Predict the structure.
Amino acid sequence: MPNQLRKERHGDVLVVTFCNLSRANAVDDRVLLALQGAINEAADTGARAAVLTGAGGVFCAGYDLNALPTTPDRNWLKGHGELEATLRLLREGPLPTVAALSGAAIGAGLEIALSCDLRVAHSEVLVQMPPVKLGIVYTLEGIWRLATLCGAAKARELLLLAEPIGAEAAHRLGLISRLVASDAVLDTACELARKMAAQPRPAVLGTRRLIEHLLRSGPTLSEEQAEELLALRLASWQSPEAHTARQNQRNRRRRPDKD
């Protein structure tokens, strides 16, 4: 794994830290591939949730401009290198994720955060989408994700003006889930990850999948999709974790109230 990425395991939760301090935690394809590998490896060895954060008071300054191709070929441009595959893994992969924004999240760094299920930040955090300022038409996937979270009008403003906004404004727009004190960001993110990890896994993964489908296609389903999603719901309902969760809830409801 590149030294720009650090991974730690805390029980069911994987914590991954961007630590390329000389480049404000900017990423390139090598780091993104390492992030994909860390998530898949953790899931294969029993992890149930992940937290992404950044060292040095910065979350991620985006894609490293020094690593951008001068003239990208069509294949690179189609997926922006490994960025789109990484974002898809965060949204649809085997682990629910929480972004712990210790500082600025810019460009691809903001996209990584927005592809996580939840985002925790403190009041001094700034977020920004600067591709237009760099002469780049951003990916359709990236623009779509921004627009689904904060609406088309605000997405236009963030992309076309390319100006940073503060954490409180980002929170009002739905780009940040929780605002906490700066020294509580990582602990809060880990606590949220533990809560997701404690839920029945098939239900968590199935619910994430349905949310992604709704964002992309709305509630309309083909007959094949309807059968596939019905099978997913049935499998979750019949899973041992689901049976245990429902039985535990029944037992709690049977307990008499204490005086």
